[in-house]
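Hi V.,

You were right to ask for the full record rather than a summary. Here it is.
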Amino acid sequence: MPILIDIRKLTIIGKLIQHGAKNVADSLSTMADIEADIQIKSLSFVEPGDIPQEIGDGEFYHANIRLTEPPYGVFLMTFDSLTAREIAEHMTGQQATSGSLNAMHESALQEMCNILTSGFIDGIANTLETTINMQTPTLERADSEIIAEETLSHIHADSLSIVLDSVVDLADQDTEFQLRIFLVPDPGAFVNLIDKLDIEEIREIEDPTERRGTDRAF
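Predicted structure:
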């Protein structure tokens, strides 16, 4: 059964994404002392079966979390080896020898992943004035087909995947991190959530003062 959403409320999805990205920038500043601007280059919708093609050919770093409250589903972030090295080197101040990451690099990369994923979901939760329970993501590296198979094995065939091409642009530095984000919500819960939201109320929320955010389950 296809997902039916009032086309006028597609604006809300864009606003939720913008607030999620803004919160990522705030989280980077607070938790990692990194001044950055998060730019959403494009937003598109694809079927879950098309995600391997959206990720690309070859191996990628990825982190995913299951959302245990509306909109449920899965949050998946992927990036290539070049981005992984750039993030790790920036976080540690150490160059990767022959392009290989050491234990310190891997640890820094995991920390950055935690900030990015929790910051994004936190921003959406704040905008909705709710909580979204989530686990701490584990950073792994695999082929795009394996990433999709392991991440989306429990996803409904009629689900809709929101795909974001985003860039983390570091202030006063000639460095950008290229990230691809997939938000694959439960179709029923997502439609119900969107239908209950008021477009004007979402438009007015620029910087929520009551930050309920995410509850992590360890």
